[in-house]
């Protein structure tokens, strides 16, 4: 935390000066990734960047299945997070997703494809415009992005594409409820010979309430997310919500739509995946 | 999909800094309007519609290229469709604002810089494994309107993309591909509605013409082509097509065929859509006594509500797979000092029909191939064929006995047609139609059959045979006033590509042997050819850009002939496959 604060101070000072100075004074990458300078300019677009262990990135040290590596990014230790990204540096498509948590807790978990051993990062942009970046190294055998998906061998993938499995757990005392989504989709990267790029692009969770249908959270998902993508979010359904509506689209215009029922009154909250002892502060 | 970020950024900065650039970019971004599409036949700077005009005359008023100057026509660039998907390329390019939009086999769409051949973007549709296109994985072209470009896919969907970025705007299911539906034709856009037909005539589907809002893809109306089926308008049932059971026995109209797989044409003067309908299902005609309306017909349809204005059935009670899908081309027939609003159609069944397009009444019908065995002629009074009853394949034995097939007959034309899908052209200056014909016959017999959803519903066996040793294909100039053949060009392999004609007295078409050829429109003399490296089965186009006349055509052998051609398939088996777009121009002197 102290490390992070120090760098935030620098970033704040830089913000007051001209933008081009930023890149020069940007902190060096603790993960020593050869891609960092390029990715920083590409995905953070000149905004101030700090390395901040307050963002918790969880991924295995070695990937068992390079086509489905579990990844979670938890920025709940930060105040007022407006956007989050996940990046796998050495993937042919480094950007995994962008998450717009709205009033949800700044936490997202998914499974991703990894092309080779790489730094995997999570970043959270706070309302002051600063990106807080953290990450881990994941060791891996090659080929997760350019190997054919398992569904390629199944003749009936087209019968199920866009189907949704979802579960919403009851909210805890803080009003936060775990939502888990699984969508049937090949999520093809376009790198496999003869298979065009075909992946889930946008997802949006709305609440169905008597007064309207406010949007709770939004995901811009990209090629590296695994086949049959899975997402876990910590949303805050309004108390008068009667159901959640999931709307989404893939890059070929295929529509995804599901109604997710509210949990039964006697259901128990989901077991938290958050590290024990972490302060539970949710940005607004 | 592959994006082109750099050129987009460049375009954006240009509009920001140049005042005239803003105007030009705004016009281009607005894209072709409904009116532009209706007037596309006379627009020499662009190719906005399939058929080079809604009437589909495939006539260009350009005169730079003539029988003399065509010798200087040279290739500018060639663009490969890439991948291993080198199957039949039957597309007609669309050209607008310096960009060529062209479709490839396996439901692919490309935007290519017309000046350089540089690819702007590519859309590669993810097809399910279970698609069932009968006659190769082709696509015949895209449609452009405002800021979007549209095309139909082999899994029977209609996709609208932003024509600058290639990003999908919407993607609508037209039909269920698992039941045998697919879609290969270029859509037609009239007054903001995108109008499509359907494929799947070999699977017992119901032919359908559908109109959707071009902005949203929402359905406006549907018109089934088989009598007894009910249409829709604005989400509600509208009217029954024809009169139930007037020409179909029992329930057979529910699986009656009549697929509108070649799309349609439109006549702005009479505000009428013309859609041809496919063969009735099953092929065995003894199972379905009656005329089987409206199969093997041309339907005149009101574009506002999908109501049928008139019909003309070219092959009532078809027994030979003589689809009536071939394009109906509106033209002014100048005869006996009068100008008649007519339409021409070169049918699969071997007859060239001239029909009054205001009422569907036959004006004349004449053979455009040398041998027709199934009818003596067409009765001008009734408009009906004079059948030769002996030439109808016999009924199979009713039992499921082994070898229960009926009497086999040798019939001409073959089921692939005296003319198949490949579009003809009409030149208002020579007043001639240029028809890509084929000379072949077939042995055909009927077999017992029951309908199963998604399975081929033929009930017939067949094999195609050439009629002559030295040629199958014949490009023929037909005089619609007399029905006479004015000239012909004979080609060893069957012709399978579209035709283009110009005010420069030229006719262009491709051959499976790989050539794009040009002919003198009056004499038929071959005046130019170019070897493209694979068979040409697409439709050539021409336009003017930077003061020079351009010609474009796709190359890539395939289509129905190698799949269904019997003896003929053997003749063409050594033609190499391909997949590329060739662009030529006549350089400034």
UniProtKB/TrEMBL annotation, chain A:
Top-level division of the source organism's lineage: Bacteria
First and last residue of the signal peptide: 1-23
SUPFAM superfamilies found in the cross-reference section: E set domains
Alphabetical list of Gene3D superfamilies matching this protein: Immunoglobulins, SoxY domain
Keyword Iron-sulfur: no
Segments forming domain Ig-like SoxY: 43-145
Keyword annotations: Signal
Keyword Repeat belongs to the record: no
NCBIfam families: fuse_rel_SoxYZ (TIGR04557)
Protein name per UniProt: Quinoprotein dehydrogenase-associated SoxYZ-like carrier
Organism: Azospirillum melinis
Organism lineage string: Bacteria, Pseudomonadati, Pseudomonadota, Alphaproteobacteria, Rhodospirillales
UniProtKB/TrEMBL annotation, chain B:
Coiled-coil regions, chain positions: none
EC number: 1.1.2.-
SUPFAM superfamilies: Quinoprotein alcohol dehydrogenase-like
Residue ranges of domain Pyrrolo-quinoline quinone repeat in the record: 49-363, 475-551
SMART domains per UniProt: PQQ (SM00564)
Superkingdom, natural source: Bacteria
One matching Pfam family: PQQ
An example molecular function term from Gene Ontology annotations: oxidoreductase activity
Annotated keywords: Metal-binding, Oxidoreductase, PQQ, Signal
Names of the cofactor(s): pyrroloquinoline quinone
Signal peptide, first to last residue: 1-18
NCBIfam families: PQQ_enz_alc_DH
Assigned protein family: Belongs to the bacterial PQQ dehydrogenase family.
Protein name as annotated: PQQ-dependent dehydrogenase, methanol/ethanol family
Lineage, top ranks: Bacteria, Pseudomonadati, Pseudomonadota, Alphaproteobacteria, Rhodospirillales
């Amino acid at each position: 935390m102290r490390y992070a604060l120090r760098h935030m101070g620098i970033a704040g000072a830089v913000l007051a000066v001209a933008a081009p100075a930023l890149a020069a004074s940007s902190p060096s990458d603790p993960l020593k990734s050869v891609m960092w300078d390029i990715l920083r300019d590409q995905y953070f677009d000149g905004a101030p960047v700090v390395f901040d262990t307050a963002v918790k990135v969880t991924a295995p040290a070695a990937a068992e299945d390079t086509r489905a590596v579990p990844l979670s990014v938890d920025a709940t230790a930060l105040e007022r997070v407006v956007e989050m990204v996940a990046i796998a540096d050495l993937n042919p498509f480094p950007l995994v997703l962008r998450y717009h948590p709205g009033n949800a807790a700044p936490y997202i978990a998914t499974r991703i494809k990894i092309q080779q051993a790489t730094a995997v990062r999570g970043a959270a942009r706070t309302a002051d415009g600063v990106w807080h970046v953290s990450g881990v190294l994941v060791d891996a055998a090659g080929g997760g992005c350019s190997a054919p998906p398992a569904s390629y061998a199944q003749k009936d993938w087209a019968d199920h594409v866009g189907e949704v499995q979802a579960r919403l757990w009851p909210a805890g005392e803080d009003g936060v409820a775990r939502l888990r989504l699984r969508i049937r989709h090949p999520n093809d990267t376009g790198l496999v010979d003869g298979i065009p790029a075909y992946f889930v692009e946008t997802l949006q969770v709305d609440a169905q309430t008597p007064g309207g249908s406010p949007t709770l959270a939004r995901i811009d998902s990209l090629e590296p997310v695994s086949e049959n993508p899975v997402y876990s979010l910590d949303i805050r359904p309004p108390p008068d919500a009667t159901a959640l509506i999931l709307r989404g689209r893939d890059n070929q215009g295929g529509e995804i739509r599901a109604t997710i029922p509210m949990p039964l009154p006697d259901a128990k909250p989901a077991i938290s995946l958050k590290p024990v002892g972490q302060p539970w502060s949710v940005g607004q | 999909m592959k994006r082109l970020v750099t050129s987009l950024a460049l375009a954006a900065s240009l509009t920001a800094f140049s005042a005239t650039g803003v105007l030009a970019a705004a016009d281009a971004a607005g894209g072709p309007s409904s009116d532009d599409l209706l007037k596309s036949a006379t627009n020499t700077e662009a190719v906005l519609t399939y058929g080079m005009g809604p009437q589909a005359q495939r006539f260009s008023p350009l005169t730079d290229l003539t029988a003399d100057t065509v010798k200087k026509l040279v290739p500018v660039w060639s663009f490969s469709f890439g991948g291993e998907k080198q199957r039949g390329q039957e597309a007609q390019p669309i050209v607008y604002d310096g960009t060529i939009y062209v479709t490839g086999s396996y439901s692919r769409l490309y935007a290519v810089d017309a000046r350089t051949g540089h690819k702007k973007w590519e859309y590669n549709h993810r097809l399910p494994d279970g698609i069932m296109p009968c006659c190769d994985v082709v696509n015949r072209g895209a449609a452009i309107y405002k800021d979007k470009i549209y095309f139909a896919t082999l899994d029977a969907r209609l996709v609208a993309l932003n024509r600058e970025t290639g990003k999908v705007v919407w993607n609508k299911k037209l039909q269920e591909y698992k039941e045998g539906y697919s879609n290969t034709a270029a859509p037609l856009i009239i007054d903001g509605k995108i109008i499509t037909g359907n494929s799947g005539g070999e699977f017992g589907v119901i032919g359908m013409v559908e109109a959707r809002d071009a902005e949203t893809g929402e359905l406006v109306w549907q018109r089934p082509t088989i009598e007894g089926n009910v249409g829709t308008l604005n989400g509600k049932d509208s009217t029954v097509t024809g009169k139930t059971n007037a020409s179909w026995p029992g329930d057979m109209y529910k699986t009656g065929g009549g697929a509108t797989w070649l799309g349609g044409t439109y006549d702005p003067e009479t505000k009428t859509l013309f859609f041809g309908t496919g063969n009735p299902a099953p092929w065995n005609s003894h199972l379905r006594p009656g005329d089987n309306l409206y199969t093997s017909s041309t339907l005149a349809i009101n574009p506002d509500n999908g109501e049928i204005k008139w019909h003309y059935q070219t092959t009532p009670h078809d027994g030979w797979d003589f689809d009536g899908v071939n394009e109906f081309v509106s033209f002014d027939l100048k005869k006996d000092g009068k100008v008649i609003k007519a339409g021409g159609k070169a049918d699969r069944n071997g007859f060239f029909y001239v029909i009054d397009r205001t009422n569907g009444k036959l004006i004349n019908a004449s053979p455009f191939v040398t041998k027709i065995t199934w009818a003596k002629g067409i009765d001008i009074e009734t408009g009906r064929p004079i059948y030769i009853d002996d030439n109808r394949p016999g009924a199979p034995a009713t039992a499921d006995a082994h070898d229960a097939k009926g009497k086999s007959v040798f019939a001409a034309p073959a089921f692939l047609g005296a003319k198949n899908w490949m579009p003809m052209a009409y030149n208002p200056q020579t007043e001639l139609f240029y028809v890509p014909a084929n000379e072949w016959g077939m042995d055909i017999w009927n077999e017992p059959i029951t309908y199963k959803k998604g399975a081929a519903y033929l009930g017939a066996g067949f094999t195609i045979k050439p009629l002559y040793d030295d040629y199958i294909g014949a490009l023929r100039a037909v005089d619609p006033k007399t029905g006479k053949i004015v000239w012909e060009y004979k080609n060893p392999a069957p012709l399978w590509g579209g035709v283009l004609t110009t005010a420069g007295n030229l006719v262009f078409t491709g051959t499976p042997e790989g050539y794009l050829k040009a002919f003198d429109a009056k004499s038929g003399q071959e005046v130019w050819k170019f070897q493209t490296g694979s068979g040409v089965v697409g439709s050539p186009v021409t336009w003017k850009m930077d003061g020079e006349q351009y010609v474009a055509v796709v190359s890539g052998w395939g289509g129905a002939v190698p799949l269904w051609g019997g003896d003929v398939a053997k003749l063409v088996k050594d033609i190499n496959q391909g997949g590329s777009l060739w662009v030529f121009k006549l350089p400034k002197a």
